[in-house]
Amino acid sequence: MPHESPRSARAYHRQIEEALNDSFQRRTLDKFAVEYRASRDKVFEEIDGRELIRRIADVKDAAAQHIEELYAQFKAEAEKRGVVVHRAADAAAAREIIAKITAENGVKSIVKSKCMTSEEIGLNAHLRAQGLDVCETDLGEWIIQLRNEGPSHMVLPAIHLSRQQVAEDFERVTGEKQDREDVQRLVKVARRELRPKFEAADMGISGANFCIAETGSIAIVTNEGNGRLVNTLPRVHVALAGLDKLVPKIDDALTALQVLPRNATSQRLTSYVTFIDGAGPCAKSPTGRKILHVVLLDNGRTKAAKDPLFSQVFRCVRCGACANVCPVFRLVGGHRMGHVYIGAIGLVLTYLFHDRQIAKTLCQNCIGCGSCKDICSGGIDLPALIQEIRARFGREDGSPLPAKLASLAMKNRKLFHALLRFANFSHRPFAGSDGFVRHLPMALFGKQGFKSLPSLAKKPFRDMWPELQKGAGQDAGKPKLKIALFAGCAQDFAYPQQLVAAMKVFAAAGVEVSFPMEQTCCGLPLTMLGESKTAAEVARQNVAAFAGEYDAIVTLCASCASHLKHGYARLLGDDAAAFSAKVMDFSSFVNDVLVARGLYVFEDSALSTKHQAPSTKHQALSTKEKVAYHASCHLCRELGVKEAPRALIRQVAEYVPSAEEESCCGFGGTFSAKFPEISAELMRKKLAHVTESGAKRLVLDCPGCAMQLKGGADKLGLDLKVTHISELLAENLRDTK
Ligand code: SF4
How close is the Cα of 334 to the center of ligand 1, in Å? Predict the structure, then answer.
C-alpha cells in the first residue's frame, strides 16, 4: 500500500502511533542506528572528515551561486560528446521531456536504477500511464515497486520491510513458494526475475550523483551491478538529476566521493562508481552509439539558490545520514519522517519541492537535537532550516493559539514572571514535598503522563538572590573573576537548587557573581514555535540586561547556552556579538577556566580551592558513587562541549559510561508536549541505558533534560538520582569552616 503523507496533525499522530507499534521496523532501525554509528566512526578515522565536509560545502555553495554558468558549460561540453542536455523547469516539464524521448525512440520497456529525482517528479506513474513497462532494478527499489510504496530511506529504500514480507511479495510475483528465511535465495530470485528485463529494455533511466561542468560527464555511485546494466545495455539512456548536482570540476566530485560512501553506508568507496563521458558505443543502437540524454531539473532549485539560508540545500549529496542519526526517524521510520525525500533534508525538500501542507505538519516533528547537522556530508544547518520553515509558516499562516499566547506572555518579562508566580501559587495544593506534582491523577494529563511533572519551587532563584548575593564573591576580597549568571526560566522557577549549588562552587573559587534582574527567558521556546519576531525582542531584552562588564556570562542550561551563543547571532546579527562571545556553559567555565587557571584544585577526589585556608573539618565524600552522564544535545553538538563535564565527574565520583550517552532524552522543549508518544520512547531508552550501566546517579547539564529524566525515573520507579552537575560538585566540596 502506498504510504499516505499527513495533511493534518491529527492524521499524523495516528500514523505515528501505527509506526510506533511496528515492532519489526523499530528493532531494525534501532540495530541499524547503533551499527551505523560504530562503523561510520571507523571509516572516518582515516580522513579529516571536518575539512572535507568544509570543502564540499564551499564547492557546492559556489555552485549554487553560479548555476547558469555551470549549466551552460555542462551542456556545451556534454553536447560536444554526443549527449542531448535538457533543462526542466518543474516536475511536469521533466516528465514530459522524458515521455517525449520514449516516443521519439519507439521505447516500450524501461529499466531504472535508483534515482530519488525520479521519485521527486513521480516519473514511474507518468510513464506507466503512457503504456510503458517501467521496472526498478535496484533490489530495494524493486521490492517497494512491487508493493506500490515509496522509499522509506534514500539509500536503503526497503529498510522497513522484513525478509518474510519480501518473500510474500516475491511469491505473489513469481507464483512460486519462497523460503522466507533465506535472504540469499531471495536475492537470487530477484536477479532471475530482473535479468530478462535488462535484456529486453529499450531505455535505461538513472540518476546522476554529479554532473561535471568541465567535461560534460556524469558520475553515478551505486552498490549494485544493476546501475551499470541500466546505463549500458539499452540503446537509450536518460540520466535525470537536479541542477544541484552540477559541480565545476572532476576534483570536486572526487572530494565529495571521499565523504559520500563513508557517510551513507560506512564504506570507503561504493562497489561501483561510474563516470560517463559522452555517448559511448552501444551494440543495440542502430547508429552503434548510445542515445544519451541528460535531464537537469529545476523544480524550485534556482529559487532556493537565491535564498541566503536555503541555498544550503545545494550541499546535499543525498547520503541519507541525516535520517540514520535522527532519533525520530529511528522510532517512526522514513514514511513518517519525510514525504518523498526522507529525514531532516526530507522535511526541508518537502517544503521546497513538494507540498506546503505536508511540510507544515512534518516540520513539527523535528526535536532539534542537532544530530543531522553534526553528521551532514555538506555541513548543512538542517535544524536552522527547519526552524526557519516553522517561522515562515507562523508569519504566512498566522501562529496557532498556544504559540500566540506564549508570544504575548514572554515578550513582557514582568507579565511572564507574574504568570509563573501565579502558576506556582495555584499549583501549591497539588505539589508534593519531593519536587513533583503528586496530588492530581496522572490520567488527567493523557499522553503527557509518561513522566512525573515537576512542581515549581516555593521560592524562585531571583527571590533568593538578595540573600545569596551576600556570598556571591563580593565579600571575599578581590575577586579572581567577575561573572554574570543567566538563569533561564526552568532553573529560576523550577530548579533553583541547581543555581544555588553553582553559587557554592563559584564562591569556593572566589568568583564574583552578578544576577541581572532584568533577564528573562532566553527565547528558545519562541524560536521553536516559529515566533521569531518575539524571540528577537526577548533576545534584545537579555542583551541589554547583561550590558555590564563581566569576564563571562555563565548559564547552567545547555539549551540556553546554545541559543544565547548561536541563536542570538541569527536573530540579532552583530548586535549580539559581544554578548554571545562571553556566554559559557557551566561545565566549560568550571573545567576550562576555574580548574585550568588553578582556582580549583581537586584533592583526594574532592573539590577544594587553592585560595582557601587549609581545611580543618572535612565533609564525608561520596567518592565511590557510580555516576552516569547524559550529554545534552545542545551542549555536545551545538556547543561541541564533550570532555569538560566528564572530566569534572571523574574528579569527584566513579564515572560510568552508558550506551548512547549523546543521544537525545526526548525533551526538546515544546517537542515533548507536541509529540509525547515519541518523547516517552526516547526517555525510556535513555533511562534503560543508564540503568544497564549500573549507575546510581545520572548527571546532566540542562534543566530541560533534568525535567524529562528526573520525571521519567520517578514515574518508572527507578533507583536513580538525577541531578545537575553543579549539584554533584557542590555536594563534594570540602567544608572548610
Ligand atoms: S542533508 Fe546532509 S546528511 Fe542529509 S542526505 Fe543531504 S548530505 Fe546527507
Answer: 14
